[in-house]
Task: structure prediction
Amino acid sequence: MTTRFSVLSRLLWVLAVVMAGLGPVLTAQAQTDIYTQYQETGNPHAPAAIGKLFTNGGYCSASVISGNNIIVTAAHCCWDRAKKSWIGGWSFAPGYNNGNAPYGVFKWAQARVLNSWINNGDVASDVCVISLQNDASGHGVSHYTGWLGRSWNYGSALSMHSLGYPGNIGGGNTLQLCASESFSPSAGCGGTGVLNAGCSMTYGSSGGPWIRDYRTGNHVNSVVHGYDSASCTGTFGQTYNGARFTSSNIVALCNAQGC
Result:
């Protein structure tokens, strides 16, 4: 005798389990190239603490993560491994919108990266924190924007919102967002030290925050690194990666910088 477990039977079974108080029983598995993308510029609920980071080498994205006027971005936006030198010239425009800086532009005071980024350039070390100067009125950036929280040592499979100013969408002039589920690649591609997530943003989004509880807690859990290879990351322009925040990267940097 054979038994066929129909779709209707499965749905009724799931409903019965949930109603019995046993909680969810089905989970979706994260995959490459799966995401929802939309624009956040003009959305009154978008955090003001996210902005565009100008550098001597172009621009990146960043976010305020401390009431001590400290932003986080990617280490490759701060230290050029090819030239073995600082990129320099950082200035941060929170809430940047088509050439407008509604909260002002804040110059850098001090930048910090991990030695492992300088020596190895691994994705898990691609994190940089920058302390900013006060403006002409004597106020720091967090006076105007507040700051996002920080989280670390969370698992790899999370509902994630990543934000930034990509050149391929909006010409780097508007804040864009991708909603997707993060996951870790194979051990040969960084393992649990790296997070992958579906997203269409490319150049310019580097350093933008990945937020695990967007609009409810706003804790940054990673920043955009970019793309490595199809075997490690997925399709270029459809999936990218970043450093999973841990005690070894964001905590070490914040402890040293005084977040």
